[in-house]
Write a structure and sequence with these properties.
Layout (H helix, E strand, L loop, with lengths): L4 E5 L3 H13 L3 E5 L2 H10 L4 E5 L8 H10 L6 E5 L4 H9 L4 E4 L4 H13 L8 E4 L2 E4 L4 E4 L2 E2 L4 H12 L4 E2 L1 H8 L10 H14 L8 E4 L3 E4 L4
Parallel strand pairs: 1-2, 1-3, 3-4, 4-5
Antiparallel strand pairs: 6-7, 7-8, 8-9, 10-12, 11-12
Amino acid sequence: MSVMRILVVEDEKKIADALKRGLERQSFAVDVCYDGDSGLSMALSEPYDLMILDRMMPGEVDGTGILKEVRKNNMHVPVLLLTAKDKVLDKAEGLNLGSDDYLVKPFAFAELIARVRALLRRPQRSVGTKLEYGGLVVDTSQSSVMRNGQIIDLTAKEFALLEYFMRNPDRILSKDTLVAQVWDYDADILPNTVEVYMGYLRSKVDKPFGSQNLIHTKRGFGYYFGYVK
């Protein structure tokens, strides 16, 4: 089996070096760049199985600049964007540019590894702005949702929540994970906020479409998106 190659572009040297050491312990081959210009050069010239890009870096090119060029060159390598920004719009911007997932700093290394492995398992066809699962289609560039050809109207928060599930199918996601990734850290989140929004999603995504539900509650653990096997 060939070794998976990962490119890490991160201007904070301690973080970059820690990621390299941790990923290499997981048997990945890792190249590290500490600035956007060299990161862009490596991204466009070397074959990688996955890229981890810091969203904001000093200089001419940051993580989103690298991402734009990678997608402009029709490269479908999965991209995980690291960001210190925790606003939903900042996350949405990165995803709309063609990233496949995002992780807000500070993060646990175990969470990063889980994201990396999930992205590497994902088939190439799911990379881009259109996400598909069964008959459900989410187009992040158009902020549109359809199931079995029928348009589903969602609020911005419902859309962000559904998009996160679509990017993490067949995984149990805790409430804490959903709050951290979909809501602002400084938002006033009530204990039942996640349950309320899950109810909204179920009423729009599942209930009108018969018995094949995609959204499931795992008591004591969180939520699961996908067909129960």
